[in-house]
């Protein structure tokens, strides 16, 4: 941090889109002289970028604000001013109530208004307080945000998130996203490609395209007509330096022909797909307003596996949805066994205020939800462990991303999004190397470099000692 600069600390909760949003908030405040602080204790501006998906999300934010209130008091005693802001989906849901309940908060702003953050901060610096903006403005927030500098991008590593779509029109009965993020909106292809080029020039090798309903993407293409996500992926794959493309989170209803075909014919699109089914019971899927059946989901998976047989599948599951019977839960176990997942996320249903499911009088008892979750997670963990063990002895390309916990170790990601640990020098971060998998656990792989193949990647020049051990 340079002398005389101001400091910013952002605590990010929840999804990858919030990670992307937090980075853009930091970019937006950089022209005002705000540099990143190591902790909230050292920050002139503290932003909590919140998520409303998890249970008791709002209460956890208020608890954190209680700690920040004491921190703000200590800094005030030293003559230091602290601006406290709450952003994201909890901010959108709570609005004015948050300022009333937690007077320590100077600013509450929703996911659609973070392009206005510099103006908000300037107003608070000039004496205003208790600002609340949870509108859904007509302007495109992405077009009004400054692009980060190459120096800023270079600090973020070889992978990056890139939001291409926001909001949701599906209105699943358990979900708050349509109320906190608004209607579906897709960014134009040209602007996404421009941002991806900047990332590539800064050393990014892999981009993950983000959206609450990312495969509902329909942004304006170069010809003025809407582009599908498959078309966008095709455009991004032509950028030099971008070697890997992923996307999340998808809805089964939006897996169109072009996107399925891309999994078979675009080598830069990684063979990993997160496709939430939520339940195996058609009765519960209807109650969730998912508008697909278990059979629909199975047919989609069959089509994807036809074009890309080695694809690794991931999903989300909710157990104990209102009215779920033992038979409904067994249907979920059945679809898990039919699909055979490489990875999955599972949760007990918890009511979200304002959603239709929260008002139903058929809530499942907590101990029943816990028992079902334990049974489901046992099945999913066994599948994930088996998938990882099948990789032992295989050669996989791995993008090295960051240092590991052990000295001399780096962690990368396989094409199937598995964490892979190898012995490697830090200078290799950002390289894509071929390795042989030597060990596997439920959560990660260990590997050794394939020296002859990595020599070819080095242009057949002699390997340095560091490269020999990677």
Task: From the structure above, extract its key features.
17 helices; 3 domains; pyruvate-formate lyase- activating enzyme; alpha/beta; globular; five-stranded mixed β-barrel; about 475 residues; OB fold (Dihydrolipoamide Acetyltransferase, E2P); disordered C terminus; Rossmann fold; 19 strands
Question: Uncertain runs with pLDDT below 50, 5 residues or more?
Answer: 458-470
Write the CATH fold name of the largest domain: pyruvate-formate lyase- activating enzyme
- Main sheet: strands, sense, barrel: 6 strands, parallel
The CATH fourth-level homologous superfamily of the largest domain: tm_1862 like domain
Number of helices: 17
CATH architecture of the largest domain: Alpha-Beta Horseshoe
Structural class: alpha/beta
Tally of domains: 3
Structural summary, described in words:
The chain is of the alpha/beta class. The chain folds into three domains: 128 residues, Methylthiotransferase, N-terminal domain (Rossmann fold); 248 residues, tm_1862 like domain (pyruvate-formate lyase- activating enzyme), CATH 3.80.30; 74 residues, OB fold (Dihydrolipoamide Acetyltransferase, E2P) (Beta Barrel). It contains 17 helices and 19 strands. The longest helix has 24 residues. The chain is globular, with a radius of gyration of 23 Å.
């Amino acid at each position: 941090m340079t002398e005389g600069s101001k400091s910013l600390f952002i605590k990010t909760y929840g999804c990858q889109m919030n990670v992307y949003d937090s980075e853009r908030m930091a970019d937006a405040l950089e022209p005002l002289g705000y540099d990143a602080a190591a902790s909230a204790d050292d920050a002139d501006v503290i932003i909590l970028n919140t998520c409303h998906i998890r249970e008791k999300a709002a209460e956890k934010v208020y608890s954190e604000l209680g700690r920040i209130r004491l921190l703000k008091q200590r800094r005030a005693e030293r003559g230091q001013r602290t601006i406290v802001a709450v952003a994201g989906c909890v901010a959108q849901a709570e609005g004015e109530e948050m300022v009333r309940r937690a007077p320590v908060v100077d600013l509450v702003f929703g996911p659609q208004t973070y392009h206005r953050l510099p103006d908000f901060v300037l107003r608070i610096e000039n004496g205003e307080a208790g600002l609340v903006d949870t509108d859904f403005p007509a302007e495109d927030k992405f077009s009004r945000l400054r692009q980060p500098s190459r120096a800023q991008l270079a600090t973020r590593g070889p992978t990056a998130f890139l939001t291409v779509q926001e909001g949701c029109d599906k209105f699943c009965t358990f979900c708050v996203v349509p109320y906190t993020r608004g209607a579906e909106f897709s960014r134009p292809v040209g602007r996404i490609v421009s941002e991806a080029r900047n990332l590539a020039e800064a050393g990014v090798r892999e981009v993950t395209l983000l959206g609450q309903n990312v495969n509902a993407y329909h942004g304006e293409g170069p010809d003025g007509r809407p582009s599908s996500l498959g078309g966008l992926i095709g455009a991004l794959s032509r950028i030099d330096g971008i070697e890997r493309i992923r996307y999340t989170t998808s809805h089964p209803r939006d897996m169109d022909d072009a996107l399925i075909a891309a999994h078979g014919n675009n080598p830069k699109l990684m063979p990993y797909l997160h496709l939430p089914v939520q339940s195996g019971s058609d009765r519960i899927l209807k109650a969730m307003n998912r508008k697909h059946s278990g059979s629909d989901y199975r047919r989609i998976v069959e089509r994807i596996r036809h074009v890309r047989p080695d694809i690794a599948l991931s999903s989300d599951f909710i157990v104990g949805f209102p009215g779920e019977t033992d038979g409904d839960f067994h249907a979920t176990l059945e679809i898990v066994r039919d699909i055979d997942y490489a990875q999955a996320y599972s949760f007990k249903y918890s009511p979200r205020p304002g959603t239709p499911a929260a008002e139903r009088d058929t809530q499942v008892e907590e101990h029943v939800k816990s028992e079902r979750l334990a049974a489901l997670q046992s099945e999913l963990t066994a599948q994930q462990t088996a998938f990882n063990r099948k990789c032992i002895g295989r050669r996989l390309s791995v993008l090295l991303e960051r240092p590991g916990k052990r000295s001399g170790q780096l962690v990368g990601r396989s094409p199937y999004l598995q964490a892979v640990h190898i012995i490697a020098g830090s200078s290799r971060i950002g390289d894509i190397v071929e390795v042989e998998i030597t060990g596997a656990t439920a959560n990660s792989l260990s590997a050794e470099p394939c020296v002859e193949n990595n020599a070819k990647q080095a242009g057949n020049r002699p390997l340095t000692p560091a490269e020999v051990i990677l």
